[in-house]
Structure formats: C-alpha cells, structure tokens
Design goal:
Number of domains: 1
CATH class: Alpha Beta
Protein name: Cobalamin biosynthesis protein CobQ
Order of helices and strands: EHEHHHEEHHEHEHEHHHH
Distance between the termini: 26 Å
Pfam families: AAA_31 (PF13614)
InterPro entries: AAA_dom, DNA_Partitioning_ATPase, P-loop_NTPase
Organism: Acinetobacter larvae
CATH topology: Rossmann fold
Number of strands: 7
CATH superfamily: P-loop containing nucleotide triphosphate hydrolases
Structural class: alpha/beta
Shape: globular
Low-confidence stretches: 78-93
Strand content: 5-15%
Length: about 280
C-alpha cells in the first residue's frame, strides 16, 4: 500500500482536482484506491460523489464522514442499545477503523472517505489529547484493503494536514506558477521536512506538480526554470489550464471517465505514470 498526500498551504492551486484525478486514474488502472478528504470545503468529496456530498444550510453533510472517525478517536460517540454504561464506555474505546466511514463511488475500485464542514471544530480537542498519530495508525490498518490512498488536505498547515503528512509515504505539492506561490514554496517545504524529522522519517517529497501551466508565456517558463535551478523536484509532466476541468466538476466525473482522449486527461495519465516510477526522495 502506498499513501500520497497532496498539500499546499495556498488555496486555488488545483489541489482537490489533482487529488481526485490521480486517484481516479489509479483506480482505473485496477488498483484498489481510497480517497480521504480532510478539507472542510469538501471539494474532492463533491467532485466524486456529487449531490450526495454537497451540503447547504438546509442539507447536512454526507454521513458517515471523516469527522465521525475523529469523533471516535476522541470517544465522542455515544454507545447505544442495551449495553450498560460501564460496558458501553469500554466498547467505545475499541475503534471501528476507517472502513466504517468509507463510501463506494460510481467508479470501480475507487472509494471515498468524505469531509465534513465542521471538521475544524475538533482540532483543539485532538491536539490537546495528543491524537496526532491516530490517522496514521488507522491507515496502516488498511494495508490489506487498498493499494493506493490519496489524501486531500486543507490549504493550511494545521492538525489535519500534519496528521496526513505523518500518515503518508509521499507528498505531492501543486504549484500554479504564481509569484506568491513561489515565495511560499520554501516555507512549505520546510514544514514538510520538519515533519519528516520530527514525526515521519519515511516521508518523501515526491515532486512539485506545475498546474495551470502556460508554456507560451514567459513568466511561467522563467518561474519553473528557477525552481529547477534551485534543485527543487519539479516533475516533468505539467498540467495546462482547460475549461474541461470545470466541466468535469459539473458532471462529477474525473477526467479519465469524462473526456478520456482530451489533452489534459492524457497529461494527467502521463503524470500518474511519472510518479508511479521508482524515484529517490528529495534531499535539500
């Protein structure tokens, strides 16, 4: 089993779209794949599950979801039935594991653990009770259930992002050739390397995914060249901007299922092939 986390502290870089499309290609290749959505915006969940995972003021979030797992970690779930209080409190401490909260998608071999808009409300309690390794332990228990796990993270370096990095084997960094993204990239990498030193020595920076790339424009070419000159692990395959991505969002269909012959779909397939090749970890 291989677990990848897709992470950038800056929003709007295509993080959720990249996560979903790589996970969908993985499943289409016959690998049993789980997508875990840790972003309260739930874009990845909605991209795959559609209206079922879309919430409003009148419509609650899809359940069960990742918040229910963390509620379980905190012991917030109430025991039901005829169990006495003493026995109930003992059973509450016995985790059901992540599989209890997973939903099957419309696509073979692709399952989703959806996000919750109120996930952030648990962060302080989880931090204060030192539950930072619980997601890692739960994912390790899935070794016989999945071959690939993709984790979408919030656009912030918080408890949930740190939990994902601790649980992951590899991290992919979406990058959109924006000057602000370039300035923030070194800080982002420092956070990842600090997590590697303190919590997860096996974590590898698998690469920087250049997204919304315009090869005809001078600035994107200069920015990418500068990153490469600095020795940063820029992946060879880049992703261009295309209206086809928004159309696939509207149809709740990853590109491999929505427009298999499109150039952007082919770019995603080439990217997936690139990261699936054996590669050395990034050393600063």
């Amino acid at each position: 089993m291989l677990t990848r986390v897709i992470f950038n502290q800056k929003g709007g870089v295509g993080k959720s779209s990249i996560t979903v499309n790589l996970a969908a290609i993985s499943a289409a290749q016959g690998l049993k794949t789980l997508l875990i959505d840790l972003d309260p915006q739930a874009n990845a969940s909605q991209y795959i599950l559609g209206d079922d995972a879309t919430y409003t003021a009148q419509k609650p979030a899809l359940e069960p979801n990742i918040k229910d797992f963390f509620d379980e970690v905190l012991g917030n779930q109430q025991s039901k039935g005829l169990l006495g209080n003493a026995l109930g409190s003992i059973l509450k401490s016995r985790s059901k594991g992540l599989l209890a909260y997973v939903h099957q998608s419309a696509y073979p071999d692709l399952e989703v653990l959806p996000a919750s808009p109120i996930l952030g409300e648990l962060a302080h309690a989880l931090e204060s009770k030192h539950k930072i390794y619980k997601l890692r332990d739960a994912i390790q228990a899935l070794a016989n259930d999945y071959q690939r796990i993709y984790i979408d993270t919030p656009p912030a370096f918080n408890f949930f992002t740190l939990s994902a990095l601790i649980a992951a084997d590899r991290v992919l960094i979406p990058f959109d050739c924006d000057v602000f993204s370039q300035r923030a990239l070194h800080s982002l990498i420092e956070n990842i390397l600090e997590t590697q030193d303190d919590h997860n020595q096996d974590l590898e920076i698998e690469g920087i995914i250049v997204n919304q790339y315009q090869p005809q424009a001078k600035l994107p070419r200069e920015v990418v060249a500068e990153l490469s000159a600095q020795g940063l692990p820029v992946l060879t395959q880049k992703l261009a901007s295309s209206v086809i991505m928004k159309q696939s969002h509207q149809q709740n269909a990853p590109l491999i299922h929505f427009a298999k012959e499109h150039k952007l779909t082919q770019a995603f397939q080439a990217l997936w092939q690139e990261i699936e090749q054996p590669a050395a970890s990034f050393t600063p």
